[in-house]
Amino acid sequence: MTDGMGRTIDYIRISVTDRCNLRCRYCMPEEGVESIAHDRILRFGEILRIVSVLAGMGLKKVKITGGEPLVRRGVTDLIARIRQTPGIENITLTTNGVLLEEMYDSLADAGLDAVTVSLDTLDPARYRAITRRDEAERVIRGIRQAALKNRISLKINCVPMGDPREQGILELLQLAKSQPIHVRFIEMMPIGLGSQFPFISENELKEFLEAHLGALTPCSDVKGNGPCKYYAAEGFCGRVGFISAVTHKFCSECNRVRLTAEGFLKTCLQYDTGVELKPLLAAGCSEEELKAAIEKALRTKPSGHDFGGCARTAGAERRGMSQIGG
Question: What is the CATH number of the domain that holds 313?
Fold first, then answer.
């Protein structure tokens, strides 16, 4: 499956819900956002049909996201059924970790290959300030249990916001010290509320980390579906990763599309380009019609983002990340 630029598209990020049990400041306002009506959310059968068609076109990797995907009832059943889809080789999930402790075994039983926990600090007070919820200890328990059981690969995603010392970046990295947990740092993207926060570049953060940890050595021993660059730090079991869409643009190697909870197949994170698939499914479209709609959308997938000019770029996405899907 290729797009109009000749890039191979073999990875989809599927948002199963726009709902979340946190209210992270860079993701949504304190009062939250208006939830999508249940009848507008893709049913699992519709998701499976889309995945099946895409797998027939060359899709191999699926990421389950939200909102917070673990608040969607039956999500482990969905994962198990995607696992059975011919052609799908890898299924991962990104979560805020609040429900990880109680759902870890069922996720592993369903056939999940890896889980990524979004966690920006270990400090309970700072966590509360970022997420507007008091769930730090619960999330940390879930991470520790996941590391102890070690049934599926575990990664941590952190978005640097301002001074890395105040945020507790070095303390967070200790999770990778003696355990095979990979901690990745994601540059804040100018989407939704994210544009209101201080921007810390990969180079700035890497310089800070090397001043405290010593040299970071590039390595290629971590499997992943996306553009993360991994480094080894002396004395660390896990790896340090950087996902830097703003300063280290990787659009020429983009291999992904996104499916929102409402059924919009989104071909680029920044832009509102793509195709509405739910109306086609509701109208009883054939597999060939669904495939044709997807192929048409892929032919117009943008060549790349322009995060530096996001606010003035025509067609730029106006929704927040919880509505788009992570």
Answer: 3.20.20.70
